[in-house]
Sequence to fold (131 residues):
Amino acid sequence: MLKYASIALGVMTGFILSMPASAHHSHAMFDTTKRITISGTITAFEFTNPHSWLKVTNDADGTLWSFETNSPSQLLRKGVKLSTFPAGMKVTVNAMPLRDGRAGGAIVSVKKEDGSVLAIEPEAPAAANTP
Fold:
């Protein structure tokens, strides 16, 4: 009986400790009700965990924008590779802006210079997944 209680305690402890890890997926920093469109030149594409970043210099005013997107494994499932966004490529990014007004947001889609559009919508907030 003590063996089963130890196993149950271990499982419960693992569950409790994993809960804070999911908290970083909040979309609270983005205004999910708005969209911005920025046309510019890719400065860098950081294909990293837990989130990748697309850095774009705005053609209109030279502002450097930082756009957050999904993890490499999620992007690969959507057909996005490290080589998809080379530095120097012209793009138009549609994103949910940061609430605090800084030059950044969460990518919704990217139109490449060849006219192709990649839909890269971010993970849906947890509340949107509940029935």
About this structure: The two ends are 38 Å apart (CA to CA).
